């Protein structure tokens, strides 16, 4: 029996427009024009004989029929994407696509990857660094390490490590003309900032420090560069435990004070529900947990 199907090229446009409730954002996601999205949706509506969107001057919203159709089409496209990944898995069996942030990649993952490759010589890790959430199907990502609260939709999210934040610096600063012996001594040293959610103002308040300009110092967008600046003796950084653990163990950094603040965000290993059926993904996931446990 022949299937009754709409023009298949219209479905990704409708799915994106339904998820974003915006033809403009759908066009940006699919690298199409606003007009192309609008035409695809209109063609789909004409074929179905059903209005899927209520169109306003600057907005669109799904009709009741559109809500029901979007749920089914979205789920169907997800299944097609997962089937496509499974069908091509044998061809790229030795390639593992991993996504994480540049800070975690540069200060934790990359320095340890040689140990994974020593065990799994048949797997080639390809690393993508981004601060945005991963679309596993669209981006071709097998597994991700993300920093947040772990509430990611339609994927498995496993807690990898919690994190605390405390001042770190080069051991040379402990022997400087004005050595760091107490938090009050921070007024004589340059502060290093990254774009982390816990900043110097928060730590100063917890330490009972007042009268110190917590906004002064060097600022970095990249956590990896901020850690490297601290290693080079450029100042004192609020170090995130996962990102400075190797430098602390090697003596390149020290914690001059005991006060650490617990972050409400943690590191999570994130992957599609069916991902662990693939040996390469399961091997990398197990290795991540083993490495983190060994470091702690």
TrEMBL record:
InterPro entries: LysR-type_TF_proteobact-type (IPR058163), LysR_HTH_N (IPR000847), LysR_subst-bd (IPR005119), WH-like_DNA-bd_sf (IPR036388), WH_DNA-bd_sf (IPR036390). The keyword DNA-binding applies. Transmembrane segments: none annotated. Gene3D superfamilies: Periplasmic binding protein-like II, Winged helix-like DNA-binding domain superfamily/Winged helix DNA-binding domain. Residues 6-63 form the HTH lysR-type domain. Keywords: DNA-binding, Transcription, Transcription regulation. GO terms for molecular function: DNA-binding transcription factor activity; sequence-specific DNA binding. One of its GO terms (biological process) is DNA-templated transcription. Belongs to the LysR transcriptional regulatory family. This is Transcriptional regulator GcvA. It comes from Shinella kummerowiae. The lineage of its organism: Bacteria, Pseudomonadati, Pseudomonadota, Alphaproteobacteria, Hyphomicrobiales.
